[in-house]
Amino acid sequence: MLISRKVIKAAIVTGASRGIGRAIAFRLAHDGFRVMLCARDQQLLDEAVGEIGEAAAAISLDLRLPESPRLLAQHALETFGRIDVVVNNAGATKRGEFESLTDEEWADGFALKFFGAVRLTRAAWPELKRQAGSVVNISGVGGRTPGPQFTIGGSVNAALLSFTKALADLGVRDGVQVNAINPGSVRTERLERRLAADAAEKGIDLAAAAENLVRSANITRIGETEDIAGLVSFIVSPGGRWLQGSLIDMDGGQTKTI
User: Does residue 255 sit within a domain?
Assistant: First the structure.
């Protein structure tokens, strides 16, 4: 009699030490994946792995460096024996007035969020083809509706969305699912710092600053990291498999354009 063995899939999540990436790593582990977390802060990674348990492992790498994405893919394959999902989440860009932003800040913005995603996906692609895997790029609403304080971020996100569409077409041929999520205002440490600065400037408390953001953006509410994690969970599940090349705005209505 043949004994059926359940296949345990494996995922890589970048920017996984905090915020959206951490929530995605926890959700995929909850869904039964083994998860390789990657970020630069080893202490935070160790704390996350300790909370997730034996389904998780981590490696501290700076994905801005050209060799790091290949090392990440190699480490995940050596640890788990397969790669089924890649979630490209790492990357934060400098906000500010266009005239004050330097060439170095522009290069740094593209180095992690765009080129880090490109290089990791390229390194993992042969294994993703073998496993009929999935790539989810965490971009952002600024890629569709850029603003004057977000010229770097909007440009990087737009490039990542274009990359998603091009790669999805290749994925049809190779059997790899490729999609992107555009989060709106999500309650992360970075957003909390922005709210704190706004509260201090206006002489109000954090709750009032959050209400101001919701009202000014005309959105339903500020998002939670678990919202994005839940969508990633659906996309990479059998029920989400028909999604291909989708650029999904999860933003409480922040994106007003078609």
Answer: no
Q: Which CATH number goes with the domain that contains 179?
A: 3.40.50.720
- Contact (CB, 8 A) for 134 and 178: yes
Q: Cβ distance 184 to 251 under 8 Å?
A: yes
The string of pLDDT tens digits covering residues 82-119 is: 999 999 999 989 999 999 999 999 999 999 999 999 99
Residue 212 belongs to some domain of the structure:
no
Residue 195 zone, left/alpha/beta (φ > 0; ψ -120 to 50; rest): alpha
Q: How many angstroms separate the CA atoms of 84 and 77, rounded?
A: 10
Count Cβ neighbours within 10 Å for each residue of 18-50 and write b for 16 or more, e otherwise.
bbbbbbbbbbbbebebbbbbbbbeeebbeebbe
Domain span at residue 14? 10-186+223-250
CA distance 94 to 75: 30
Q: What is the pLDDT of residues 216-238, one digit of tens each?
A: 999 999 999 999 999 999 999 99
Residues 6+ positions from 9 with CB-CB distance below 8 Å: 32, 33, 34, 82, 84, 85, 131
Inter-residue contact 231 to 250 (CB < 8 Å) = yes
Q: Do the domain assignments include residue 74? A: yes
* Residue 97 CB neighbour total at 10 angstroms: 9
Q: How many domains does the chain have?
A: 1
In a domain, 19, yes or no: yes
- Residues paired with residue 56 on neighbouring β-strands, in sequence order: 35
CB neighbours of 18 closer than 8 A, spacing ≥ 6? 39, 41, 44, 188, 189
pTM of the full structure: 0.95
